Amino acid sequence: MSSLKSLFAAGLLLASLNAATAQGADAQALHEAKLTLDAFGRGYAAALLGNAVPAAQLNAQSSKPRLIKLAHGEMSVRGSDKDLVVSELKLGLGDFRELGLQIGETPVEALIRNYGQPEKRDGRHLVYRGSSEICTDHLVFHIGNGVLQGIEWDWCYD
Question: What's the mean per-residue pLDDT of the chain?
Fold first, then answer.
């Protein structure tokens, strides 16, 4: 009888370990999805900065943030000349199927499934903490009619 109890206890232990491992794997997958989206946003912003934004808008000698209107959103840049940094990117149009995102179509439930529960949620925004470890940056999904209406990256820097 004691071997049956031991076998039962071992089965319970194994089941709890499998559940903990699955939860850890899920948390890791959500974290990696956020890192991928952050890296995508940084790359997209760098491409816009290098190719799509007129040089006249970038060459201003001010270190104050400058808002640059884009055909599909806007971005904020700081710095001057060769030391420009994109501090914010907002996209209101886009089909990013490789990320599982389609503005105007991706439902809120899919965002939560792919990125986890947000740190903050109100009727029109799902706010996630970004990937920076030295300051607080954010990823914001703008919601309307139950679907994704825009994506905002708000990067911190020092």
Answer: 80
